[in-house]
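Exercise: predict the structure of this protein bound to pyridoxal-5'-phosphate.
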Amino acid sequence: MVDLAAQYNDISSEIDEAIHSVIKSTAFIKGQDVQYFEKELSEFLAAKHVIACANGTDALQLALMALGLEPGDEVVTPAFSYIAAAEACALLGLKPILVDVSKKTFNIDAEEIESKLTEKTKCIIPVHLFGQSCEMDAIMHISEKYDIPVIEDSAQAIGATYTSEGRTRSLGTFGDIATLSFFPSKNLGCYGDGGALICQDDALAHKIRLLANHGQDKKYHHELIGLNSRLDSIQAAILRVKLRHLDDYTNKRRTAASIYHEQLRSMNEIILPAEMTNSKHVYHQYTIRVLNDKRDGLKQELYEKGIASTIYYPIAIHKQRAYSHFVESDYRLGRSEELSKEVLSLPMHSHLRTDAIEYICSVIRNYLN
Ligand SMILES: Cc1ncc(COP(=O)(O)O)c(C=O)c1O
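Solution:
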């Protein structure tokens, strides 16, 4: 699905130098690279604060803790998504309210959000799935109308933008807090685990920083009950190098997507990913929908031809055994359930060659014709 070796080969001298410099400094934890990375990323996003942490799941948990949510509070989040947002809620004793998504964009449906609000709703977590923005105007309108904070899960959408009232901004700068993951296969990935939170409010940023560091303001003075959630210096040094290449990587992903579009355009049994006009899609995934129950057969055919493909996500969250107690047994979210049977993500990364895409598409065409 990704070719991290090809990407490394291109920038190996920069990466090796960055890693060696941390090793020589021995500042493995909270070294300078972490602060530099936070600053450089905040400039890249035009965000006021970036707080690095250990991974994207911790980032979600820290965001919920920073907003002061309490057990029993409800958090509205999509059912067709990665598990992390619902998991962070469940771990804190919060109730994830799982709502349906748009089949066109795969993203949470703003109308569905509004229909699921109750007096207990204390947060909305839209997930910018596969690299494309949710409908942030509509979501922020709901947030303001009902005074409910928003945490943008931007793990899959670093570098993506959204245009609101003529102004284009990075995703992650709309909500009260946003979260990022630097898992190796992410558009900006490190060589291990990493994550970050983004926010514009000084007091909230200070609280997040404390929470991520055992709740301590000063060493051994604990103001809050927190977590140990750190980005280590080697990962920060790697991310600093890769951040310099991120725009180039995004452009390459978008070019790969346009070649897929061109090659698969005329297929009746495939629905191609739709790009919203007011958002820049960064194609963390290139996810097609395969109709007429042909998805699994196509996946197998690709596998036999040596082509990787992945089903993100095979089971909607309200259908997961561990989460079934959050919903009634007859709870149905038709679009999420249908998508889990239709979606197939094709290889997508910054070093995907045109001839590889052409080969993948020829296998798809031959199978479906
Ligand atoms: C949408 C989304 N949110 C959160 C996460 C969690 O990130 P991490 O794996 O760094 O904990 C991921 C990672 O796959 C993700 O895709």
